[in-house]
Amino acid sequence: MELGARLVSVLLLWALQDGDWATSKALSWATQSPAPGSSFSPPPVVAVQCEDDRLVVSVNRDFFGTGRLVQAAELTLGPSACAPVPAEPLSKRVVFEVGLHECGSELQMTPDSLIYSTVLHYAPNLSQSPLVLRSSPVSVPIQCQYPRRDNVSSRGIQPTWVPFHSTLSREQRLKFSLRLMADDWSTERTSSAFQLGDLIHIQADVYTGYHVPLRLFVDSCTATLTPDPASVPYHVVIDFNGCLVDGQSRDSSSIFISPRPGQNVLRFLVDSFRFAQDSRNEIYITCHLKVTATDQAPSPLNKACSYNSTADEWLPVEGPRDICSCCQTGTCISLSSSRKRSLADQEPGNPSEFEADLMLGPLVLSEAENGPKSGQGNNVGGIPKWPELLLGLTVGIAATVCLLLGLIIGSHKFGSPCSRNV
Prior knowledge:
CATH class of the largest domain: Mainly Beta
Order of helices and strands: EHEEEEEEEHEEEEEEEEEEHEH
Oligomer: single chain
InterPro entries: ZP-C (IPR055355), ZP-C_dom (IPR042235), ZP-N (IPR055356), ZP_chr (IPR048290), ZP_dom (IPR001507)
CATH topology of the largest domain: Immunoglobulin-like
GO cellular component, one term: egg coat
Membrane topology: Single-pass type I membrane protein
Helix content: 10-25%
Structural class: mainly beta
Subcellular location: Zona pellucida; Cell membrane
Number of helices: 4
Shape: elongated
GO molecular function: acrosin binding; structural constituent of egg coat
Number of domains: 2
Mean pLDDT: 74
Radius of gyration: 38 Å
CATH superfamily of the largest domain: Zona pellucida, ZP-C domain
Largest sheet: 5 strands, antiparallel
Distance between the termini: 119 Å
């Protein structure tokens, strides 16, 4: 039996505001059982059919069981107040047909079920008799519950639960993050200040929640002097869909860390640097992150490759080495070539929920203090200057000689050769 043919759990709870007689009577009518021996069962006031990707709500216009028919305009569905399907004026039922995630419906996930919840609202129209209220507003909560696991046949068909992965991705967006980490990767770094020569430890990760297992990649990273990633000057750190090109720079040790601590985590090191032609000491690093399913093999478009200067070759964090060959030639399809590219320009089939642009900064860079600063007479780093060192040695030797002479002639009535006459 197809999933769409099932009528799953529908909760009809009436929210009574004034508790008037008509509403109470409608509630008792809607819940009462047929009389003993009677084969007639009155149709429900509100009937819900839960299909694969939508729900159909049918409402009896004799809403309170009093014979007074409510108007279609007095009924709306969901927080977005969706209107019913147009129907004949003499029709006895009002029908809503909406997608599961439309009209402001909410998705709740349990280990075994996906539960879509919405509310049917009735609000009496006061335009004809604004001073007299003959019925109360009513809200009817509605739920459609779908199993997250189901049995399927062994035939080559798509499992019935596959469409719900994309629905889940839309309802609960992935949480991407880009963080500065301590040198041992155990905690997040508390300072964004670095000296030239320091290694910047960067960790990218994504919280997947109830999604299928996902693998994270860093497509591109660009360093700039301002928060605008399209500003000039700029320095490309990662390019060509995951090539850490900064590692090709002379004296650079920038690499991806392998193996990953998890498929949803990617770590890499970047040598600290400053822009040579600019006196500003703050930089911003903007990276484009994306995810793929873990059962999708790494490829030239989905990779994490580091340059090994000793062997003059590119090595991937995972996957065959040939996926990094385009890093050497620069023939990969680069997502960072156009640095003004925004998430609104995603290609079809790559929804923005699975990609994100994140920024680190400002990172404060300063030059390492390796020696005395010009124009200063004070010592640098606690190392004494040579004249001071020689003076100290001379004083020490003189004191030692005086002490020895004092011991030798101490028994005579001569003053110490190192003492002053008073």
